[in-house]
Amino acid sequence: MPLLEHLRELKNRLIKALIGLAVGAVGGWFLYDPLIVALQEPVNRISEHTGGISALNFPSIASAFDFKIQMAVMIGLVISSPVWIYQVWAFVMPGLTTKEKHYSLGFMVVAVPLFLLGIFMGWTVLPQIVHALTQFTPAYVNNQIDVREYVEFVTRLLLSLGIAFIVPVGLVAANMIGVLPGKVILKAWRITVFLVFVLSAIAAPGADALSMFMLAVPLLVLFFAAIGICLLNDRRRERRRAKAAAETDAAAGVATSREDLEKF
Length: 264
Description:
Mean pLDDT: 81
Structural class: mainly alpha
């Protein structure tokens, strides 16, 4: 395809993605209030322990309106993700080989549910995290939390756990393309287990260890499942190489006929 056709195709894909984002933002405008109520619930519980006033705070007159528009766009980006992800896929797909298409499609099919699972786990432990980080507030002292900083904190938490859940898929993808052998991943299992528990302790710093294990166990299961898949793929790759080498040696031991030599 000529360069001009590529640019025209890119423009069409961008327009479709922006239309999907606009439709999703309209839906995000109406979902804004229920989402803020759900986000505010852990903050409201702070007063039960401190005795003071705890609430989300808008620092200026127009900040509430600006924040609602930003949140509507952010929610619309999430709602319209199937649309713009497909547009990116459709633009890149013609340049991929059949094998690359299968690998990339398999990666998307597995990574998206795991990413959503990580976000769900982060949402589950959010109240415990808010309680753990605000339990040092002195008695009868108010917690007026800036709503922008709070939403940014929640977003980072959810994205961090979502990305943590798709790291094993990235390891498998790196192994499939021959960059990272399974034995190399297996050698680092002690460090990985330690880092998983550290991440779980940071993400769920409550007084009980149940929240930490609720995050650590799924991550460890995914990690060791990824190791198993990588080792099986390495074994399959070695068998294929051995078979190809054996066929090459067998062909090298066969004398070339006079007819083939004359043709050559």
